[in-house]
Amino acid sequence: MSDEKKKKGNDYAKSIDPAALEMLQIADEKGISTMFSRVDEVSACPIGAEGACCKICFMGPCRFVGKEKEQKHGVCGANLATVAARNFIRSCAGGASAHADHGRTIAETLLMVGKGEAADYRVKDPIKLRTVAGYFDIPVEGKDDNQLAVEVATAALNEWGKQNEHQIYAKRAPKKRQELWEKLGVTPRGFDREVVDSMHRTHAGGDQDAQHIMDQCVRMCLASGWGGSMLATDISDILWGTPRPLTSEANLGVLNVEDVNIIIHGHEPVLSEMIVDASQDREIIEYAKSKGAAGITLAGICCTANEIWMRRGVPPAGNSLHQELALLTGAVELMVTDIQCVFQGLVGVAKNFHTHVVTTSQKAHIEGATRVEFHEDRALEIAKDIVRMAIDNYENRDAAKVHIPNIKSPVVAGFSHEYIRYMLGGKYRGSFQPLNDNIINGKIQGAVAIVGCNNPRSTQDEGIINLVKNFIENDVLVLVTGCAAHAAGKHGFLTPEMFENAGPGLSEVCETTGMPPVLHVGSCVDNTRILTILTDIVETGGLGDDIDQVPAVGISPEYYCEKALEIATYCVGSGAYVIFGGVESPVRASGAVTDIHTSGWEEQFGGKLEFISDWQGIFEASMAHIRKKREALGIHEAQERVLFDMADRRG
Questions:
Q1: Which candidate, 578, 594, 575, places its Cα nearest to that of 586?
Q2: Could you tell me the pTM of the whole model?
Q3: Which listed CATH number (1.20.1270.30, 1.10.3630.10, 1.20.1330.10, 3.30.1330.100) goes with 92-197+221-240?
């Protein structure tokens, strides 16, 4: 823990969320271990934290320490730059695999739907199905949804296994960006090929040039960003509907003391959509009432929450650091999980209450949890079994242990790329032109995407919320995804009325168009929606001919996981300036690799990756970057408004 964090005092240093602090007080009183307490008990290894430990073979591990560590070598002769680069690409491989494999599961589900093997699902957005078919050059005339679903899913699944052919979705990037990738040799091939290539080259005695390793890192991450992750988003829209804004509420106060409370946690909507359907079944609701409950309340945690929040209006109970806090309420009958960011500590917390923790994915189980394996061909049946399990557990609740914070905020979520176009231009004139025009005229200075995680080594939500607040006050449009979206929602920033807290230019645009100044655009895999938004901005015109020219920044103020590094890398490869905060760079021991991530990547791709631990530094660097890009475009000075007469209009 940093000295600065200690100075803030124990409570404030943990979170700025009053609901979190209320539950942490209960955890302290009951002596229940959580991530917030364990982070003080487990010291981070300083050598591994800065990327200076090599453990890919068993001649080591080799530790690079001391003032001259950049001149030292491991047993095999590897220098620190090689070690740091290998550590970084292997982390990115883990993150990219998580996101791309999520996409593969969604594509496999679409294939089952098309073949009639998953009767509980159907195509909910046939227009998006036909749009995606167009990306693959699949003819759509005369084909029903199921036939087209088979063809689209088959084409999508082929993207993972391509050997030397380039991924189809790479063609969705701006033309200039595609040409740059081709020139640099990083146009992505099949995702599986890129990950195997990355793991192979970082075996002991393999690739031993930091720059060469980082080039492959970008290529692999582009395969996830413009491939597996983007496909996950598109096919999720096909199966469960392209998001449109929905109202809901956020934070632990959404739980209901009179209801059976079920928390859905993880990342894949394949499971969560069925849990929502099962909980709304009339027979299931009557069964809950027969056990003495008033009804059933569903709430989400993490990115599964984002998926069902933006499509079904299911309220989010909080971001990833709320997963243990939700169980501490004593009011949760069952937490059902699938994959990613589901932590083993849940079982230890649940043992203090009546709560069941249920794992469902073939890829993930937790020792001590209840196992109910989920299969798409019996999806609703299994979902109903899980909901009944929660209902049956309701009578085991100990009322004396129940404590639900009376804290929640109204939220509006679900601004897909398609809906933003509609919101700005209407049904027949959907366009990003009004957004571009108002960036050009200076009413909107630029845009930032605040994304990613919480990390208990930084104060929960502090960086995220301070950045959101300061950006909108300075006429910068904010997009949020993942756990950052939860933070914005919990603290009241996801409502259209928030335009009153924005600067005069952004406020005017938002009030006129009905666009909130902080837009919820989805889960962490949906960061690819931001790529499509940036591409649309470029193609609309007036703000350059590639993503690196747009006055925009990507920020993860409290990152913790490998997926965050992977997202950062594909965004940099796409031309974005990306800043990470909360904890320091995982390659900071190596000046050579740090230079590659900053000046090196900026020279190659027009984007760069920097680590700035405090939110004030992130804000200042972001605003400086936005001003720099505005100046390069020649839009940094206010333009005189010219009123056209009829002759000008004819001209």
A1: 594
A2: 0.94
A3: 1.20.1270.30
